[in-house]
Amino acid sequence: MSKTNIARTAIFEPLSSLLVDLLRHLRYFLVVAEELHFGRAATRLRMSQPPLSQSIQRLERELGVRLFDRDARRVALTDAGRQLLPEARDVLAGEDRLRALADRFRRGEAGALRAGVPPDLGGRAVAALLPAFRVRSPVALKLREIGTAEQLRALADRTLDVGVLRLPFDVSWLSLGEVLTSPLGVLLRPDHPLAAAPDVRLADLNGLGLVLFPRATAPALHDEVLTTCARHGYTPTEVHQAGNAEFALGLVLAGGAVALHDGVSPPADVVWRPLRGTPLLWRTAPAWPRGRHTPAVTAFADAVAEVLVAQGMRPAEGTLPRYPRPAAEYLS
Amino acid sequence: MSAARIRAAFADAGVTGRLHAVDLADPTREVAVGADDPVVLASVFKLPLLVALLRGGADLTRRVTLRPDRRSTGPTGIGGMVDPVTMSLRDLAFLTMTVSDNAAADALVDVVGLDEVNRVLRELGLTRTTVVHRARDFMHSMAEDAAPAELPAALADPVVLSRLRALDPTRTNRGTARELTTLLTHVFTDDRYELIRRAMALQVWPHRLASGFPFDDVRVAGKTGTLPTVRNEVGVVSYPDGGRYAVAVFTRSASTAFTLPAADAVIGTAARLAVEHLR
Residue A309 — φ and ψ, nearest 5°? Predict the structure, then answer.
């Protein structure tokens, strides 16, 4: 047994039993004061009379004053008893409040939920998320706008309760809500010839640069995007790493580059065109550390799904055939 | 310093990695990155299995027959064959290490017993390495946990992966990077394990630990372990000057793709950074 445990056994248990005893004695005191009759009070408390009398005597010893004048015929409050009665009521009401609040925390109805959302989620989604959460949970929602890598760190060091993250990320220690996808298109300068067509093939983008989020913020996704582009015949002349939407937009407007975008309220001075065959998509899911699930987390995950679906995102559908190679060591 | 570079290499390859490396000539010289975190062993469990086999005194020339309807399956070795195979215990051990043969390994579990493997681990002072099931058990658990989705496609779905017992170190074969280098130290400093050392040196896979040491005069003896998003290898790297280093690397990838050359290669890169620090 560790030092802490010894200390707890030695101090915490007597302390807690004293407190619980005091509260119990006070509760009995209240009933006797209301009935002014030990027999009727005992009946109300569904106990026999002797332990009730002992309890009142112990409380009187504990407080060092007599609470009742009692003779063979009648029981009356002493002056001290009369003065202490409202205090006892306050203490017991305080206990009720304390237990009720603890219950609300346990049921996930109190406190705050600290949640992260990716910076490129968009203002409308954030605006819709708050009311969508509020109708599902009474706890306060504290939203922070942070990227996937940073959210993972915050979830790990417990400064965040739940996040909305772009896949892929290491899920080994996380639980995931529903994965939603948004097919990507490209932002083009309005005078670019490709802007005239209803959609664009990735291979048509050869000769143009690609504006992408900084690789360090999500190396796995960054590489996945470039691998997919290459597989579909597009090798960007240059990969510009843009940390914010305004800078990405600037690079597109300057000409010679395209940026990926999900087509939800694209910026006004450029043209959005979908990619033919939806070769690229963002996959987004709420995630929280395994074993730290609360009703508020469920409410948040449901609110996220509602808002993102309303925005046009769809559940991931149909998987590609998969052929594990012998070095995978499993499946045959 | 080298730990920070190793962490950066893992992040750059899109994986979370744990590593422990130790100089066999001086075990106080080490490199540790998350070396005491619990990790999923996957096929690395075959190393303690063989250690227990060699300590158990079974007649290694005894021949057993593995019938196709009764043995475990897998993509390599007997696990991938169609006809009955009769082979000595030591050749089953050879296939277990060189090609990670699931059928051979599970047949050896029948000989040794999982309780004996764990008893041997405790005897060697390893308290956090535990083998709770054989290859076919964690394969079955993956199919069960993935249902109703079907393998192998379901194994690329992150939601499915987040519920697989086979990927949860509290519920499958587990260890720590540090305990695995301790086990390697026993294997590479005690002659009774010569059979394991030879088989690890003949392991066929070039893409992980070995990829970090592309030198004809450096020998790499290793054992890989792989499951969806899990890529591991433990082994010993031997230099011509006599320097020998035990390295254990355990990774989890962000991407759920089966084919991720960068995630395989970073095992070699990280091991090389660690070994160069120790040299």
Answer: -65, -40
Angle subtended by helix axes B135-146 and B102-112, to nearest 10? 120
Contact by Cβ (8 Å): A133, A299:
yes
What residues of chain A lie within 8 A of the CB of B225, using their CB?
A: 329
List the domain range (segments joined by +) for residue A62. 3-106
CA distance readout (Å), B60 to A86, A101, B43, B53, B55: 85, 67, 22, 9, 11
Nearest Cα residue to A163 out of A292, A312, A301: A301
Cα A180 from Cα B159, distance rounded (Å): 11
Dihedral pair phi/psi, residue A244, rounded to 5°: -135, 160
List the beta bridge partners of residue A261.
A185
Across A50-59, B95-104, B144-153, least confident range: B144-153
In a domain, A332, yes or no: no
A219 shares contact with chain B (CB less than 8 Å): yes
List chain B residues with CB under 8 Å of A330: 42, 74-75, 102, 139, 142, 226-228
Instruction: Tell me the C-alpha to C-alpha distance, in Å, between residue B96 and each of A228, B47, B130.
Output: 36, 9, 19
C-beta atoms of B162 and A290 within 8 A: yes
**Residue A255 contacts by C-beta under 8 Å, 6 or more apart in sequence?**
A189, A192
Contact yes or no for B52/B215 (Cβ under 8 A)? no
Q: Is A323 on the interface with B (CB under 8 A)?
A: yes
For residue A5, pLDDT beyond 60: no
Residue ranges of alpha helices (H) inside B20-100 are: 46-55, 89-98
ipTM: 0.82
pLDDT digits (tens, 9 = 90+) for A216-237: 888 889 999 999 999 999 999 9
Question: Of how many residues is chain A composed?
Answer: 332
Answer yes or no: do A47 and A192 share one domain. no
**By the 8 A CB rule, do B174 and B40 touch?**
yes
CATH of residue A306:
3.40.190.10
CATH number of B2-278: 3.40.710.10
H-helix or E-strand spanning residue A281: strand A281-289
| pLDDT tens-digit readout, A52-92 | 999 999 999 888 899 999 887 788 999 999 999 989 989 98
The DSSP code for A10 is I
C-beta atoms of B258 and A223 within 8 A: no
Helices (H) and strands (E) in chain A, counts: 10, 14
- B104-107 long-range contacts (CB < 8 A, ≥24 apart) are B104/B66, B104/B77, B104/B78, B104/B79, B105/B43, B105/B46, B105/B49, B105/B72, B105/B134, B105/B135, B106/B71, B106/B72, B106/B134, B106/B135, B106/B136, B107/B64, B107/B66, B107/B71, B107/B72
Same domain? For A136 and A262 the reply is: no
Q: Is the peptide bond before A168 cis (omega within 30 degrees of 0)?
A: yes
Domain presence at residue A58: yes
Q: Which helix (H) or strand (E) holds B136?
A: helix B135-146
CB B243 within 8 A of CB B15: no
